[in-house]
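thought: fold this chain, then report.
action: predict
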Amino acid sequence: MSKEQEQFEIHPDLDGSLHLLFPLLSSLLFVWGAIFAKQSALRGTSPYTNTMLSNVTLALFWAGVGLVRGDGLPMTAWGPAAAIAFAFVVGQLCTYLAFQLGDVSLATPIFGVKIIIVAFLSAAFTESAITAQTWIAAVLAAIGIGVVQAGSGSSARHPLTAGRATLTVVLALLAATALSLFDIGLQHYGRTHGAERFLTLMFIFTGVISCGLLPWVDHPVQIVRIHAVRPLTLATLLMAAQAISISYALGRFGDATRVNIVYSLRGLWSVLLAWLLGRLAVSPEGSLSPRTLFFRLIGAILLLVSVIVALN
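observation:
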């Protein structure tokens, strides 16, 4: 191992689990960001606006980090950084599309299968055998998705058609797949080049790629006119913050499987938060029927069990 690689080798924390606080924080920030993203979508903003603003915010943050550090990466790292950035943008866009077409408490639990996809990809890249626990976890995750979707469209005042529910699930699965590729790539190249240096380059590419969405981004005057400035700003900051937290954990510490297991708790938080805000009558999902939330809670719990099984 070269001195440079040794310097940037992933160093686990003292007890091997403190770094899991990063994905725990991200899981909480993600759900709140998703709620505000849904609010801004209901007021008329496009998912392209959410995606571009969040990713440009990330690019500016990491560009600032790069300026402070004063170092860069060789041209050989630019290709992988651009490819991983593209996977991130696709994942983010599919995430916002899923929020716009469906409910946060429907889309978010589906993202829990990301841990299964990460496990399969990790096995494929490391050529290690897929354990029986992983297969069991995959079956439980599939059942969880079915249970979550089974409760769709049962809302009394906020109906979600079967077609839109299915499309929401498909988009959530595409987002989970793209972001799983992002996780695996970031873990590998963050280990090779150093987390901060690679994250800086990768997120600068993310911002550049996201600028391709500009033709579909809402005009600032339109955003002000529909009173979407506040939810859009909060969604942008929260989604960027959660991405910074989990990306740093993956790039610095690796451990993609356990990081994603903790991160998948967002599925449970989303259902509980939808229920709480519904009780307070302040959520865009406040009209969801008890039957709908019950199905989604059971599905979210099954997804949570599946990722716990995958950990063992």
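thought: worth noting. The first helix runs from residue 3 to 7.
final: tokens above.
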